[in-house]
Amino acid sequence: MGKSQKKRSMRRHNPMRVPDSHLPKGLASASASSSKSEAILPIIQKMESVDPAERKWACVAVSNLIQNDPSTRRLLQGKNIVGALITRLSDSEEEVVVEAAGSLRNLCIDGGYDICAEMYNKNILTPLKTFVPKISSTLSQYLASPKTAPENAQKLVYEFADNVITILWCLSETSNKALNAINQISLVPFLMSFLASRDSLPMSTVTSAAQCLYVLTDENPPIIEEVRTNAEYTACLLAVVRSTDMPPKLNGKDKDTSDARGSAFRVLCCGILRNITPIPPPSIAATVDLDRDVVLPTLEPVLTSIDLAEATQAAQHAIDNQESIPQLENLSLKHTPKSDHKTASELELERIETRLRTVQLALEILTGMCATLPDPEVFGGGSEADADAPDGVDGENEDDEAMDDAEDINMTVDEASQAAQAPQPPAFFTSLVAPLLKLVHPTALSFPPLGSPSSHPPTSSALGAIHISALESLNNIFLSMATSLGGRPSGLAPENGRMVFDAVWHALAAVGTDISGAGQERRKQMWDIGVGVLWGVGNIWKGALVPTDEQVQVLIQFCSATTDISTKVKTIGALECLAQHRESVDANRTISSYLLSLLPPSATPPTPTEPLLQAASALIDIYSDETLPYDVNFRQGRYLDTLVRSVEGLRKAVRGIDRKKERELRIRGEEVRDNLVAFIQYRRGLGL
């Protein structure tokens, strides 16, 4: 059973906002589903025009054409639009360069890994490297004397810098080769200059710089060392997180957007601080317990800051009321929309996406923290809220209020006096598990419909990422509880376990079991991670979870259908836990019969080694106590005979594990083999 450890994943921070996986491979399917294919040739032609106005028009048109349109994006990619835009980065006209960078940025964030890899392979870093010192110089001039700075300084610092920085952070996740090349550019002082000047710059640009630094400090030793050993940098990051000030005083939607970006900025700086820990003296950050006093107090409110159902309704309303965009053929060079032109509905959708991405980011950081749970010092309440409490008042009152407000967490009891005496769940169970469970349940926009794209891919991408990250956090919480404490912490009753198991099960039921179609990768991920959470919960509350016929049948069908070895192991683990409810004799029989069918020689085709070991181990665990009511199944079903017949096949499977390449699995296999032999001898000795 493995944790969802936060390790470098090339798609982790930059998921594809507008996936094209629902389309069959190749350009033919893209051409058939795109309504703008005829507009592509004029764009390619104008990209090479001698008239700079036409070149600028072509660059802007790319951004407008690809917006939420993966078919047209694929067609453009097939016409080498990436290479053409990279060429325009060296254009003699500055406005063309700026617009080309904007289109490349949009291609990066919409298209994800494949397009970023193409950009790197077509040498985009060569022009990008020349922009960094130019932007730095202009930024210094602008901040020192805005009135005397060059005429285009603001656009260069704001828009162009934002585009360049975003491209760099997307590229840094393309491959280790690309990351190493970006490490050589000396980006840290450049990026930190934006964070240091945050009060004088637009929040969108500063947030992009923080996002880039967050990605670059993710398990990247050279950059981590450069940031953590600079006391000025770490003090700046800590000041951002501790500050509640929001930039420019705005009203209405602009204020909402600014607030959302400000929250994202603080969460990113939390992530950077966590990436670079431990921080050495003399930095002020070295004197702070970052997890307890900085990170958790920042992340916990973010988790409860949004209701996904309400956000989905707001997004759907904006989608339904989207203003029409002028057709490309009806636009003149004088009336082309700017690359940053956005309608009211688009701005609303952008604001919602920013809030959703902030929650996703908080969950991503939390997943790493949950791998070390439970730490009572960190998750048990010692925080800045306690430290700041007046004399005679401790922080427990706030924890008590939070527990009272948490839905469905505390045990249900009939008498108030019993409730007062009943042990309360640990603080982290209330402050983390409850909000995480709310975030795993899908909404109407969480996944694209079967066989077609989402009505707004960026919103679906963000929602799906939230559900998956919340499940990963829950997976690590319950795994850590099982491995660190060896069982259930005091204060957690069977009702708590059933509540968590049912909440996750209902979320998976809402996802549905039709998860193998094109474009449904996120649904499959939900199940792959979700069964791991069910296993973790089952391990903590083993014997307390009452299985339903639906749960047993669906898990067996899923286990038989999945080809992923790890997912199969986790599903067997979840079934093992459900089989150990004392009174559920029928469910035990169904599950054990399925597990026995996975053993040699009856398994056809042969069960892969890891699931085979898990099935054998599960049967040993389930029937280790012959006094349990469901042991009648073992005796009446003559399970002992089946286990005896499986021994030779199991031994053969263990011998087939390469001791050098898969040492841990070989050790595990030998342990299961020996335990099975000992178990058979024990049951024979009972004479039952």
UniProtKB/TrEMBL annotation:
Pfam families the UniProt entry points to: TPR_SYO1
UniProt biased composition (Basic residues): 1-15
Record protein name field: ARM repeat-containing protein
Chain positions covered by the region annotation Disordered: 1-33, 377-400
Gene Ontology biological process terms from the UniProt entry: protein import into nucleus; ribosomal large subunit biogenesis
Record field: compositional bias (Acidic residues): 385-400
InterPro entries in UniProt: ARM-like (IPR011989), ARM-type_fold (IPR016024), SYO1-like (IPR052616), TPR_SYO1 (IPR057990)
Natural source organism: Lentinus tigrinus ALCF2SS1-6
Family: Belongs to the nuclear import and ribosome assembly adapter family.
Example of a GO MF term: unfolded protein binding
Chain ranges of the SYO1-like TPR repeats domain: 431-684
